[in-house]
Amino acid sequence: MHLGLGSFHRSHQAWYTECDPEWGIAAHTFRNTALPRALTEQQGAYTLLLPGEEAKAEVVGSISRAHAGAEQERWLADLASPDVAVVTTTVTEAGYAAPVPGQDSAMQRLVTGLRERYRAGGAPLTLVPCDNLPGNGGVLRDVLRTAARDEHRFAEWLDEHVTVVSTVVDRITPAPTSADRATALAATGLRDEVPVVTEPFAEWVLAGEFPAGRPRWEQRGARFVDDVDVHQKRKLWFLNGAHTLLAHAGLARGRRTIREAVDDDVLLATVQQWWDVAAQHIAIEPGELAEYRRRLLERFAAPGIEHRLAQIACDGSQKIPARLLPVLRAERAAGRVPEPAVTVLAAWQSHLRHDDVRDPRAAELVELARSRGPTRRLLLALDQELGADDELVAAVEDALPTRPTGPSR
Ligand SMILES: NC(=O)c1ccc[n+]([C@@H]2O[C@H](COP(=O)([O-])OP(=O)(O)OC[C@H]3O[C@@H](n4cnc5c(N)ncnc54)[C@H](O)[C@@H]3O)[C@@H](O)[C@H]2O)c1
Ligand SMILES: O=P(O)(O)OC[C@@H](O)[C@@H](O)[C@H](O)[C@H](O)CO
After folding, report:
1. CA of 291 to the centre of ligand 2 (A)
2. Residue 345 structural domain
3. Which residue puts its alpha carbon closest to atom 7 of ligand 2?
4. pTM for this prediction
5. How many domains are contained in the chain?
6. Most-buried pick from 70, 154, 288, 394 (CB within 10 A)?
7. Residues 198 and 296 in one domain
8. What is the distance between the alpha carbons of residues 51 and 57, in angstroms, rounded to a whole number?
9. pLDDT of residue 404
């Protein structure tokens, strides 16, 4: 099963699952109704478009059923079924907030579904969070424990029979555009209302147990390791950190996409500086890291991938803490003020002040950005210790970009 059916699930977990015909996916969205309807009309199949010099198109058929978020009974019945062995999730970083009684949320639905499974006999299950969240397995496990803390038997069953796997996921998959359908038709001769554009590269690193079995994802290159920590730091700090840097600093410089942003020498130099700083806090052999950086730049500049900065800049309050703050804290502990991190924080402040902000904390953050003394207040909203750091606050204030008022997108 999957929760959070969108572009990334289809370019990543569904593509990996395609290699094992023994398995199929019952994919559920959170709210979207158009995508499951279109996929149902196409018997679950869709086109994966891989642009580039040797553009390719593949039809992926591993989604057996697609359901809208409103189909609650279907969700509960699926999750109660012993035929279901694995549940993957892509519900964004914010989607892992602990459930609040009476409020609908991804975690609320998951816990309700797990309770149903427990009552129906309690077959073992593995949860596989696939969002860019540090320690995603641990975060999800904590959410379950907190939600079940007053239900002793259910909590015991969760601990004994539901495993939570930690993952690092990677495949750059921009939001769809209106041109994608025509590209898919030209590439395959088939009408597809919901194709997905992605890159040839894909990575999936997983740590944990699968008591009820799993698809043979390793056939497509998934790696099973004891601990994802170093892989996670590499991916979150280097790829996603650079993305967040390019998104905020790029918007402030009038750039539109990741490709345009890495074509800007000033931004490219800032990314390289960021990577130099982050490299001091990760235990990866320098040659391997240099090769990873080289490939990232190639991927960022790849033709045919229109990855909009405005898309990446969404939910900054959830992304900056995962992608930049661990390195920033380590640098401050060493007495340094890392310029590229300061650049991002300053550009984020400017984004909150001038742009159309999409963030679960938008109301609070936009008000702070437009208040007096916004820099310290915004840093405090991200992290108490960093907000109390006078030297950092002064550096961010000095780095604030000048840009015209009014929405940039
Ligand atoms: N797109 C990528 O390149 C990529 C790569 C790696 C990881 N991811 C992860 O996958 C997530 C989804 O990316 P996508 O490209 O599929 O986006 P998408 O917009 O196509 O799909 C997002 C899905 O998440 C659901 N969702 C959004 N906010 C939610 C919330 N608060 N609670 C529950 N569900 C929510 C939506 O309903 C939708 O089903 C990202 O947030 C990221 O964590 C994406
Ligand atoms: O998907 P988000 O919104 O969490 O982050 C935007 C991008 O940084 C992200 O999607 C990357 O493209 C992805 O993590 C690459 O694997």
Report:
1. 20
2. 229-399
3. 312
4. 0.96
5. 2
6. 154
7. no
8. 8
9. 54
